[in-house]
Fold this sequence. Notes:
The protein has 104 residues and is mostly helical. It contains 5 helices and 2 strands. It has helices at residues 4-8, 17-29, 34-45, 49-60, 92-100; strands at 76-78, 85-87. Strand 1 (76-78) and strand 2 form a beta hairpin. It is elongated, with a radius of gyration of 18 Å. The termini are far apart.
Amino acid sequence: MATKNQKNKKSMKRWSAGEDDRLIENVRNHPTNLKHAFQLTAQEVQRTPGAVASRWYLYVSKNGSTPFLTMSGKHIAANRKNGKGVPTKLSLYKRVLAILGLQY
């Protein structure tokens, strides 16, 4: 007979590579609105938006295989280690051009 804790405990299904790919694709399509990307992915892979957001922030975004930036109109370059942001006066586009050594 199962105990009370075993009855209430939900089984967590593992994330598949296909689900991660859907998440990456939706973030690529909506880089300025991660909440929307998480909601779309949640509907597609039958998970909660919170589970999708956790997957993004804890695993996928830290994996070196996602070569793109997420940005917004109020972009702050944040240090992941301490969480403190450094405001910038240049737009992301101008900063990328400066990094590439191109004139703007």
